[in-house]
């Protein structure tokens, strides 16, 4: 099966990037000119007949797209969420990534724009993108965290169903060197992140694991002693009478509950001396 854009022209570079999840295919056309020369676009195709045919169901463009954005240089998909990178090579901006979510098979969709918290001109943020569940990963291989063009990757995560994607981490190579281009490629699965640095000597790949959960020590119980008022002792009767003695009437209270000693009652006959 060959897929083509319904409005494609020869200079669009349709197919520059591709991604698939289940019955949905996403294709980037980073030179499409809907919002100016080389502004870029991405197309969504869906099969409903087991792969016999794939219908074009949506064309995605950045709501703020402009000349040289290169939207569609990278694409990724997970379920009903698509991520599209716009590295802004020719506009010389810092780059961006866009997250699209749908609940109706791409008849309608929402758009969230992601940018690096410390982005700078020509970082090429968005050259690579990846998504797994609620986490989005974006590479910026010409970012300059220390050496020139050593590269970075940024992690974004939503906790509100896709309404927002705050940046939660920035990743760099521990042994970063100039022109390594860390973040040229990125991938994520189950919290494990992989970032490629093709020009680190003969090339390297870095694997990042999520931090182990912090185990909080159980607080030591705090005890407070609450004495029970002493009973009033009556004068000893001159004739035998039944009497009661209470033992273990003190109680202690601990955080989270009350610990009380058993109260034992003894009935006895007091004898006059």
Automatic annotation (TrEMBL):
UniProt-listed InterPro entries? FG-GAP, Int_alpha_beta-p, Integrin_alpha_N, Sialidase_sf
Report whether Metal-binding shows up as a keyword of the record: no
Q: Which domain of life is it from?
A: Eukaryota
Give the span(s) annotated as Disordered.
212-252
- Look up keyword Repeat and say if it applies: yes
Q: From start to end residue, where is composition biased (Pro residues)?
A: 228-240
Q: Which keywords accompany this UniProt record? A: Glycoprotein, Repeat, Signal
Task: Quote any Pfam family the record assigns.
Answer: FG-GAP_2
What is the protein name for this chain?
Uncharacterized protein
Q: Which organism is it from?
A: Pelagomonas calceolata
